[in-house]
Specification:
The two termini are about 30 Å apart. The protein contains 13 helices and ten strands. The longest helix is centred in the C-terminal third of the chain and has 29 residues. By secondary structure, it is an alpha+beta fold. A hairpin with a 5-residue loop joins strand 3 and strand 4. It has an eight-stranded antiparallel sheet with strand order 2-3-4-5-1-8-10-9. Strands 6-7 form a two-stranded antiparallel ribbon.
Amino acid sequence: MSLQQFMNEAISPWMKEEGPDSDIVMSSRIRLARNLDQAPFPIIAKQSELTKILEYIKEEYHHQTFKTYHDLEFVNMKDLKPIEKRVLVEKHLISPHLAEKSEQGGVLISESEQVSVMINEEDHIRIQLYFPGFQLEKALEQAFEIDDWLEEKINYAFDENKGYLTSCPTNVGTGMRASVMMHLPALAITQKINRMIPAISQLGLVVRGIYGEGSEALGNIFQISNQITLGRSEMDIVGDLQSVVEKLIEEERKARQLLVEQSSIQLEDRIFRSYGILEHSRIIESKETAKCLSDVRLGIDVGFIKNISKTILNELMVLTQPGFLQQYAKEALSPEERDILRASLIRERLNIENG
């Protein structure tokens, strides 16, 4: 797949599939942080040293295929325009940190966009693997296989006592971040999520927004991930996260059922008001878009709305982001111009779906 296809398609191919508990868990991700042995870590390395690593990985893995992950496309950050970098962030193919970093950064992206390998971000290598729905164990198994494949040609920085060595001390050990992206509208509407977040934090997990650290939970979408990487095995970490996610799924389903039983007309009114805003607005900001998309998705899941697929909503979540809007328009847009184009694209997509 070419860079242009990554830019033009709002929804990644893997996102079109449904996984277990996909009404609540949108995706499962495993991220592995690795560094090359005998090479200065990116935070202290010279530009020439980072360039050498970048060129080596490009030479070894550009257009390579591993099992079902076909045609790894190498993308150099220095070749991208700011809007193109933002699009890759909005699709979760690179981190905001890599987008803002020096010109010695890059990424390998599989054809399905299910795998991305960031190069010279905070660490030399950061492997990301996504699965639709709640599939942490499967994602971990596949991430291990990709990690082993890379390690056939790369010697990792590893200590027998500490584990994998990383730039940030919080990643030392397994070097793993396991996370799930969850849509929790009922817990947000009933304000139960505010009481649950501190309890989750006490269990060694962290709750963040849609783009990870420092981001806001737009559209009632929360990212739940582990904080501890040292002294625990990868399976233990994933097991702890799975237990918490299973509890959140249970509580979200209870909250949805309670809203339907006790506040049905109010919930239905909220959902169809949001649907009306999306269908008829001529100008709409990103925050309001996220809130309305969340309401409509809830409406689909509880059976109030039957003529729209969740795939369209997944697409609109990305398509209506600032970077993608400007990529679509092929020019830089002012905030007001983005709000006008956002409303137009939403109306167009909903009309296509209904038509």
